[in-house]
Amino acid sequence: MSKLHDFIEEAGVFFLATEDGKQPKVAHIEIDDKEYFTVGDFKAVYRQMTDNPLVEIVSLNPKAGKWLRYTGRAVFDDAPEYAEKILEMLPELRNIYNEKTGYKMAIFHLEDAQAVILDMAGNTEKLI
Which pTM value belongs to this model? Predict the structure, then answer.
């Protein structure tokens, strides 16, 4: 799993695709050998993921000329220690997720997942 985490970390940006009707829409952390992502429980993307948990995460590393496709079923985990680790890593999120706003961070990982790294020449490296 670390190679997946390292790819996203180096690329710096990733996109999450969910489904809103039939139209796909487009902070991560590694804990206990699983890659976790967050969304606000007040956002449309959270509702889309609870309606249909099948998602794809795509990350592009232009320096390496490669991209990552990570697909699977989103499984939410409300472990408070995971939220605290994410808030320690990104303290600015405390301005959004707190008792005053009432917003909660929904933390998820992917099950039944597949992850591949592809390059412009069509080469594929299967991670999961």
Answer: 0.84
